[in-house]
Amino acid sequence: FRLALIQLHVSAVKSDNLQRACGFVREASAKGAKLVALPECFNSPYGTQHFKEYAEKIPGESTQKLSEIAKECSIYLIGGSIPEEDGGKLYNTCTVFGPDGALLAKHRKVHLFDINVPGKIQFKESETLSPGNSFSMFDTPYCKVGLGICYDMRFAEMAQIYGQKGCQLLIYPGAFNMTTGPAHWELLQRGRAVDNQLYVATVSPARDEKASYVAWGHSTVVNPWGEVIAKAGAEETVVYTDVDLKKLAEIRQQIPILSQKRCDLYGVEMKK
């Protein structure tokens, strides 16, 4: 099946972001994509100073648009993420809609991006955001898909659980920066893919040098052999790739690590 990653240029105008995102979704659908994914914070600038201003309830304006365009194009739409307000708390939340426009999954970013690299970048999502507390998976006629958002990708246990639960594709809307992007963006994707013998796709906003937080870009798809099979540059674009589940099955047969794990010695479990 064909997967499309929309590396969107995100502006400060929410209505423009929504309109242009929907335009790219239509374009991707017309080119045969069955699953289409948007980037982290696709409807608003990324930054702790912006989350409260742009936050919405779910359902709300942005997710209503996503539901409508998924139904119009009859696709599975992974709605990147938006700042969500619920019960007085803010979350970084990804919604997924099916070809009938129904909400299939809602993933609240589990691991908040609190880092301090002296002289390069300091960022603390927990100043404004609360963490999610659950894994998020959804079924399609093609395969089962697991969701994470950006910093979630650094936690190998999360990807391993998704693999144990039958996911063959992991999608991470993310906005790595100009420090962590060149160092770890591709490395982490290849690691998650080869460790669990599944496909990994990441969707970044396009790079905007004038933004307060500059995203690395380079939306990427990695196959279960750890090979990069599709990759964007820094600019606004749509990345297409054909996900070959036959190749996934062949790799798992050739190197059967999933059946060779020593569960008598170690294990990773989902607690809730």
From TrEMBL:
<dbReference type="GO" id="GO:0005739">
    <property type="term" value="C:mitochondrion"/>
</dbReference>
<dbReference type="GO" id="GO:0006528">
    <property type="term" value="P:asparagine metabolic process"/>
</dbReference>
<dbReference type="InterPro" id="IPR003010">
    <property type="entry name" value="C-N_Hydrolase"/>
</dbReference>
<protein>
    <recommendedName>
        <fullName>omega-amidase</fullName>
        <ecNumber>3.5.1.3</ecNumber>
    </recommendedName>
</protein>
<dbReference type="GO" id="GO:0050152">
    <property type="term" value="F:omega-amidase activity"/>
</dbReference>
<dbReference type="InterPro" id="IPR045254">
    <property type="entry name" value="Nit1/2_C-N_Hydrolase"/>
</dbReference>
<dbReference type="GO" id="GO:0006107">
    <property type="term" value="P:oxaloacetate metabolic process"/>
</dbReference>
<feature type="domain" description="CN hydrolase">
    <location>
        <begin position="1"/>
        <end position="245"/>
    </location>
</feature>
<comment type="similarity">
    <text>Belongs to the carbon-nitrogen hydrolase superfamily. NIT1/NIT2 family.</text>
</comment>
<dbReference type="GO" id="GO:0006541">
    <property type="term" value="P:glutamine metabolic process"/>
</dbReference>
<dbReference type="InterPro" id="IPR036526">
    <property type="entry name" value="C-N_Hydrolase_sf"/>
</dbReference>
<keyword id="KW-0378">Hydrolase</keyword>
<dbReference type="Pfam" id="PF00795">
    <property type="entry name" value="CN_hydrolase"/>
</dbReference>
